[in-house]
Amino acid sequence: MRDNVVLIGMMGCGKSTVGKLLAEKLGFTFVDTDQYIEEALGRSIPDIFAKEGEAFFRDWELGAAEELSQRKGQVIACGGGLPTRADSIASLKYSGTVIFLRRDPGEIYDNVSMGGRPLGQQGREAFLERYAGREPIYLEWADHVVDVQATPAETVQRILEVLK
To answer: What's the pLDDT tens digit per position in 96-148?
Structure first.
């Protein structure tokens, strides 16, 4: 295992929930890139998207990825779109083992609160299309693919097994 564990996957797949538990098990610090950006800017992601646009947000994501890649001992939960910019995910991959948390996209949309999330506001069909476009990118960058299990604890156990 490299210095960090980097979790990628679609929003709502469980990166933050699993990431916190995994960090605790490994004795690492947990960082969520979306929260990192929200704290840096003092604004919510939906507000940033609405007022500044996606390109502005993706530039901040790149900066966050570059900063976080310089640190060690972290579990980093990436925003769902971060891997779509090669320069953002490349710096994190260099510093960590990348795990794609794969979960059925229909299940994500049907079971996860989409309130306030930019992708959730576009409807189920748009969400499924976005997932179909992103999944090959997630697979390209992942060192390991872990299918999300029934509970977050079970998913953490699977991640620990692939990190051995």
So the answer is: 999 999 999 998 888 776 555 555 567 889 889 999 999 999 999 999 999 99
Let me know if 98 is exposed, middle or buried by CB neighbors in 10 A (0-12, 13-18, 19+): buried
The domain locations on the chain are: 4-163
Please state which architecture CATH assigns to domain 4-163. Answer: 3-Layer(aba) Sandwich (3.40)
What is the spatial distance between Cα 37 and Cα 15, in angstroms, rounded to a whole number?
16
Q: First-to-last CA distance in the chain?
A: 8
Q: In Å, how far from its chain's centre is CA 39?
A: 17
Q: Which residues pair with 29 in a beta bridge?
A: 74
This prediction has a pTM of 0.93
| CA–CA distance, 59 with 94 (Å, rounded to integer) | 19
